[in-house]
Amino acid sequence: MPAPAYFLGIDVARTGLGLVIVANDGSVVASLRRAYGGVPGEPMDPQDWWRAARTGIKEILRRASLKADQVRCIGVTGDEGLVALDRTGKVLCTATLGADPRAEEHVEALTKVVGARNLLNLASGPATSAAAAVKLMWLRDNEKRVWHDLHYALPAKDFLRYRLTETLITDACDASATLLFNPKTRSWSKQLAQLVGVNSDWLPTVANGPAMSGRVTEAAARDAGLSAGTPVVTGAGHAAAIAIAAGVLAPGAMAIELGGNGACFAPTAEAARDPQGLMAASCHTLANVWALTSSSLAGAVGLDWIMDQVLPNEVAQARRNQRDPLDLLAELASEVPTGAEGLVYVPPTARSFGGYVGLKPRHGRGHLARAVMEGDALTFRQTLSALTDAKRQPTRIVVTGPGAANHLWCQILADALDHQIHAAPVAECGAVGAAILAASAVGVFKTVEDACAKLVKAKHTFSPRRAAADTYAALAPAVARLPSAIANAFHPQAAEASA
Hints:
The protein is of the alpha/beta class. The strands form seven sheets. The chain has a seven-stranded mixed sheet, with helices on both faces. Helix 14 crosses helix 15. It is globular, with a radius of gyration of 22 Å. The model is unreliable at 493-499 (pLDDT under 50).
């Protein structure tokens, strides 16, 4: 019987560093999350990610009772981020994972410089403050010394790999998210770089996710408790990583992340565009596969607010009893009928407000929880509608992320989508996707497809219930109009004035 093999996955996430160790039989041997300090969504020192990695890797090896040389390969993933380095590899400034509120004015500036149509033709989609192109424009206009010394611009996960291996590489999914990359040609766009004023030499080489991209250096091995020479693969952007964790590798399937970032990822056979603009054109981290993707659809914001502000004592008690707080929310929500008796939750985005609509005295804590689950699910319904209109409706939908273990939320999603879904719950799904890429790179599995066939297991299937699906179908058009109505009522300037 062959000796077991172990693979380390690392996720540079907004709320902390996620780490997992996956064995070649598909079991998650250990998982943990290391906080960076500070407030999620605000600028932070990228070196804090590396500090979290150094202590986190040592701790997860201890929990798994493994020696450093038992880790066969390492995979990395992470949220959208821009790390500015000088020619020696020194970090020049703080970085924001995901949307950067400081750069919101430069969203319009990028669109104006490049042109809205040109940006859609050349890059992955419309400008957002999460894109590296926008963040670079902000640096150029606000951090003159940083701009002068800038020599390398890396996505978050690739900075962590740079600390591990001293190599400068990214994958096509993360490259697409920068808005400096052309998904059609799977290469950096010289035209976009020139229009934005970015030196193309600052950008890393692009490689496929399971490709070897370096080995752990002697210095990194000492710092992180790893074995020098351990191979590290290219890895994947967050959305592609959750797709790998869900076994979504080819057209016809779609991955949904319930909780976490709330990402959605639908592979395509060629570079495609969503006519509705709800999804961005991107690339899978695998060769010759593209994707339509979006994020922040059913993230943790709404339920986290309830846990922190409405039920803090009950949630603390649940955690002391080693119980998932989501189960507590699901119990409350299960006592409320479909439609939450008229209470609607609109998920906030980086550029728009969200909140509850239709709140009445009779609504209680269960209504608040159910409305969040339903509002998030109906947001995914809009995405599924966009895929259908683009003639790319998936035949198989796989759900992963923290909410995939919650039966009520999964059932609500199946009802809202009016589509059967398969739940593949795993802790730290982004890191698991990165570990699967690592497992496919060192000969333990022939391909990523073989690795997923062995390592990815859907535990439950949920089919839509007719009465609930009809209720959500009637509710969906009104819910779809609410974000624009809220944006018109609460313009950012008005919100700042009233703050």
